[in-house]
Amino acid sequence: MTQRGDGPLHDRRSFLSQAGGAMLLGLTAGAGTGAMEHPEHRGSAQDQKVDGVDARRIRLFLCGDVMTGRGIDQIQPHPGDPRLFEPYVRSALQYLEIAERASGPIPRAVGPAYIWGDALADLDRARPDVRIVNLETAVTKTGEPWPGKGIHYRMHPANIGCLTAAQIDCCVLANNHVLDWGHDGLLETIAVLRGAGLRIAGAGRDEAEACTPAAIELPQGGRVLVFGFGSSSSGVPEEWAAARRRPGVCMLDEDDSRAVEQVARLVRAAQRPGDVVVASIHWGGNWGHGVPDEQRLLAHRLIEEAGVDLVHGHSSHHPRPIEVHLGKLILYGCGDFLNDYEGIGGYEAFRPELGFMYLPELDASDGRLLRLVLVPTRIGGFRVNRATDDERRWLLETLNREAHRVGTRLLEQQDGSLELQWT
């Protein structure tokens, strides 16, 4: 995979391989303002109520990559086989050890809510109608590591409670780790998630299933349709593409002029009046804040021509700029929400431990963005924590430095959250 944008030429596999080598050496050696007041940007105070629920507004929770495998799996009540097949690291326990050297002791056999940390209280306060994450981990105890891939994530199925604890509605699986343990691992992942009552998008037992959206009913009527797409630009192997008789990922070829029509056909086939459409896309490189022109064009066309109301982009290890196009929200890269990379150096300038909870409010009648609140977060101790004041200011300054190029700005609120302003 080639990095496109302003960051270093580096993909996730080589980053983790190099970091793993350095880590192993280290272990051996150390054994108040909202969006602009404008009718387009604010919902009416006279929004109708249905059984006490705002009939026009939909509030979503979105985040970037959620990785519950490897080191994080080892602190769960049912840790899986820790053996790894990486170039430098042979046990998931080594990731736990290096994280503890960086952050202090991490408990074992944690409760299912542990990994979500401070995020659970924020979710309780926000009360989103729909909760969507990109689950970048196979949930399986079977399968063989995908040959030649180098990095393989998995969580033991008995630890599924760590996902249901956050009342997740939809796990997007169209990413570059869902088939780390082959087709058998993917099939078990799908079965385990569905058995726990979780909807999935972006992968399936064949192409038709992989490209079918997760449909989440709303109490006020209508649905949120979540389509998941993986792109080779993020490192999803092309051979992972689902086919008529082959399990895999719903792939989106960013360089194919027919990609927008592909999405448009899927939306037309699934959408009913009152549905809001989310396109959740694993795309682009891991590092760099700049958004390539071709990616912006694709996002714009998905809104203009394919009927997409919100583009939920992920793959980057840090948050990237946010745009509003024709009143519709585009998140180009949400950053990592949870991973086991603590203590791994090399990209400190990007502050990859920092991220956001994205809480957009949409007009249910047409999918327009009414408001976007972002809650700054920090990964520490293999859990999600509220960012400190200094970390929040760093996120604010960094995102605003880049966001002017796409006509947006973040403003700090009294409660420590940030709110999007757009023109």
Helix content: 25-40%
**In the CATH hierarchy, what is the class?**
Alpha Beta
Note the main sheet: 10 strands, mixed
N- to C-terminal separation? 34 Å
- The name of the CATH topology is Purple Acid Phosphatase, chain A, domain 2
Structural class: alpha/beta
Percentage beta strand: 15-25%
The radius of gyration over CA amounts to 20 Å
CATH architecture: 4-Layer Sandwich
Residue stretches low in confidence (pLDDT < 50, at least 5 long) are 1-48
Number of domains: 1
| Shape category | globular
Mean model confidence by pLDDT:
89
**How many strands?**
22
Number of helices: 10
CATH superfamily: Metallo-dependent phosphatases
Short description:
The protein has helices at 12-30, 70-74, 92-103, 119-126, 161-164, 182-195, 207-210, 259-270, 293-305, 389-403; strands spanning 49-50, 53-54, 57-66, 130-135, 138-139, 154-155, 170-172, 199-201, 203-204, 214-217, 223-230, 248-249, 276-282, 310-314, 322-325, 328-331, 336-338, 354-363, 369-379, 384-386, 408-412, 418-422. With 423 residues, the chain is of the alpha/beta class. It has one domain: 4-Layer Sandwich (Purple Acid Phosphatase, chain A, domain 2), CATH 3.60.21.10.
